[in-house]
Design brief:
Blueprint lengths: L1 E8 L9 E16 L2 E11 L2 H14 L5 E8 L7 H11 L3 E3 L2 H10 L5 E8 L5 H27 L20
């Protein structure tokens, strides 16, 4: 399973448009409310599949050779983060590199069913007070970047003449476009 899309940066080294590849996924604030229940649940970390991680990193090096991919921890929460204080707290408490709203839920279902997964996220904003404006401005570019990485991964995985999809994948320019 390849989960991809956009995320807000928690790591100060990340810039808008950078790609984060999950080594782990953490659900940091799954809130359950109902009759007799009212609690926050934290799930994780859930390890991504090493082979899919390697393929994603190789694909990102091809798609974005100057910035490459950043291997990191993807945090999932119930709400978008658009506050510098919250951003810093999430980075400090969980070591997260980016934050989004679906990845760890998908990772949990995959791990429960023994399905390999990786999360590929392009940074769309810096998860601070300017996040909404940044997201609107970066949406197309960041969406294209994460899509391009996944398309390159699929080319690498489906390469018919390779027994191991990673073997020789570093030069993916040979794949048909």
């Amino acid at each position: 399973m390849i989960m991809f899309g956009l995320a807000g940066a928690l790591n100060n080294e990340l810039k808008i448009g950078d790609i984060v590849i999950s080594k782990k996924a953490v659900m940091y604030d799954y809130f359950v409310a109902g009759e007799g229940v009212n609690e926050n649940i934290r799930i994780g970390p859930i390890e991504a599949d090493p082979q899919l991680v390697e393929i994603a990193l190789l694909a990102t090096q091809y798609v974005a050779p100057r910035s490459g991919g950043h291997l990191g921890i993807v945090l999932t929460g119930d709400a978008a983060v658009a506050d510098a204080g919250r951003r810093a707290a999430l980075r400090r408490e969980f070591g997260g590199d980016c934050v989004e709203m679906e990845g760890a839920a998908v990772a949990l279902v995959c791990s429960m069913n023994r399905v390999p997964f990786v999360i590929v996220r392009a940074i769309s904003d810096l998860a601070d007070e300017h996040a909404h404006t940044q997201f609107e401005e970066a949406f197309k570019h960041a969406s294209d970047r994460s899509t391009d990485v996944v398309l390159e991964m699929l080319r690498m995985i489906s390469r018919p003449d390779a027994a191991d999809p990673v073997e020789g994948a570093a030069d993916s320019r040979a794949y048909p476009r």
